Amino acid sequence: MAALYRGSIAPIVQSQGIAFKGLYPGRRGAATILTELTGNAIAANQLLRHNDLTITTKSYIQPMPDALLSAVRLLEEKLSSVPAQA
User: Fold this and answer.
1) How far, in Å, CA of 2 to CA of 30, rounded?
2) Are 36 and 64 in contact (CB under 8 A)?
């Protein structure tokens, strides 16, 4: 994970002048969004590779305001129409 950060994430984040807060906010965001979109906390649990669903539901999945959920669904729709790069 550290190599991924140093080689791929850090250069982009630093070039944009963004203060990096670690990988956990991204994990929490991914778990929350996946659960909201699918209605299935088990999918988020499997994505995060937790042994216990309770860890995922208590520590990672956060409530999502309706406006944010609408924005995420719109983003999902827009991204689905972007052609894959080789």
Assistant:
1) 19
2) yes
Query: Token pair for residue 68?
Result: 């944010």
Please work out, in degrees rounded to the nearest 5, the angle formed at the alpha carbon of residue 66 by the alpha carbons of 53 and 36.
25
CA–CA–CA angle 60, 77, 16 (5° rounding): 65
Top mean pLDDT of 4-8, 11-15, 23-27, 52-56 is at: 52-56
CA distance between the termini of the chain: 24
Q: Which residues contact 32 (CB under 8 A, 6 or more apart)?
A: 44, 60, 61, 62, 64
Contacts with 31 (C-beta within 8 Å, 6 or more apart), sequence order: 44, 47, 48, 56, 60, 61
The whole-number pLDDT of residue 86 equals 58
